[in-house]
Amino acid sequence: MIIVTGATGQLGRRVVESLLGRVPAERIGVSVRDPRKAKAFADRGVRVRQGSFADPASLAHAFEGASQVLLVSVDKMGEECVAQHLAAIEGAVAAGARRIVYTSQMGAGASSRFQACRDHAATEEALRTCGVPFTSLRNGFYATSAAHFVSHAPHSGEVALPADGPVAWTAHADLADAAAAVLLDEGRFEGPTPPLTGGRALDFAEIAGVVEDLTGRGIKRVTVSDDEFRQRLTGQGTPAPVADQLLGIFAAARAGEFATVDPTLAELIGREPRSLRTVLGEHLTTG
């Protein structure tokens, strides 16, 4: 049985949907914090069990009978994130899984300027020593993050962000199909994959132009200092440590950590990945 964690989130839900289009539902199980939110999957024959990385004891039941476990990384950064990933790895090993697939990120490395990439590197190191074969999906930076950063641009006429660099923005739907393809082809990758990216890397000056084209409104790229951006975030109620973590995205982009464009994702899913323009068109409103 293939167990998918985080199956009610943006990525995990799409992975389950992709798997359901390829294998019988009885071959799929999900581990979710709130089984009520996965009722639609249960109604289709997917095994739904409660499990949380923050509650390691719950994972024995959630992962029972697993041949493979897809560990979808948690939406946290720092020590808590890594600790939860380690608990999930231990749970998968204890359940007898013959393979662990983990959603990492391009740029994962101990010296990355972005905390999440350092967390992914620590998790990958734990996977290397866990005693079970693993595949680490080096996912491109989520295109929805770009959509979030420019969400106010149609109204303000500005994309006011720190200095950045090109990023290979990548759609959740494409990464979900890639994860499903890897789960169904156990010999495809051992260890980290090449970067799984969209077909083009864009910086926010280029993204401002895309927003302008989509909305028909003039959009100006305004570069603000890191300190000004931090102050804006904290003034809106963002905790200072979280603001610093978000700034790490821009520092890493300036250093080229997310600029690589690689054909592996297109090869896995059998089509060209969705463009950032397509994702922005789905998320932006012009009213």
From TrEMBL:
InterPro entries: NAD(P)-bd_dom_sf (IPR036291), NmrA-like (IPR008030), NmrA-type_oxidoreductase (IPR052718). Residues 2-265 form the NmrA-like domain. Pfam families: NmrA (PF05368). It comes from the Bacteria. This is NmrA family transcriptional regulator.
